[in-house]
Specification:
Blueprint: H1 8-17, E1 24-28, H2 32-42, E2 47-52, H3 55-62, E3 69-73, E4 85-90, H4 100-110, E5 111-122, H5 128-137, H6 152-161, E6 165-169, E7 172-178, H7 181-187, H8 189-192, H9 196-210, E8 216-228
Parallel strand pairs: 1-2, 1-4, 2-3, 4-5
Antiparallel strand pairs: 5-8, 6-8, 7-8
Amino acid sequence: MIDEIATPWFDSALQRLGLRKGERALALEPHRRDVVALRAAIGDEGELTVVVGDPAAAEGLAAMQAPQLRVIAHDALGGERFGTFDAAMFAPHTGPLLPAAVYAELARKNLRPGGRFVVDVPAADMLPDLSAAWSDAGWDEERLAAITGPRDAELTAALGAAGLRAVAGSPCTHVLQASSAAEFVAVFAGDLGLTDDDVIELGKAIVRNRQEPGPLELLVHRAQATGRR
């Protein structure tokens, strides 16, 4: 579902990474449209390696048959070496998220000296409208783990502690447009394990809180950091 909507947080992360034609790039858990954007940035001469945990998703990306694209079906733990890259993009749209220290270790072990990275993950409260509606429903907040990431200071501290250089944090807030509150909730239904009835209930709660039936502009908070090996 998330491939069917704009994802301004990924666009922001890609811009900050500053990929150049012909570079070797590593991406963790990208979606199909992310792969298209990454391939366009590095061109046909560039090499892109993507690592995804879901075998079915990996198979779908491999079926794109894009030039110089290598797809690895693997759940990253942090100690892996997938190659030596000029740049690395760690920008999962939602969880399950890895600890910030794992992203740091992946950057340290897979980038060439001076190689660049960007980490862009859900912030501590990625979707405030959805979280407020969730609280109104009285549901278990542990189920929000997929959209609950580190605080900005925690992210930058973990990256710096791994010996990475020029680490700079940049908390980002984006606007996501939806024709209705239910459409917005449905985007994240799979990640949060929501039924159709859950989507409707949360959508109604957002409308009550916002006092807007739609279309809506909803905030998305992300924790973002860049640096070099």
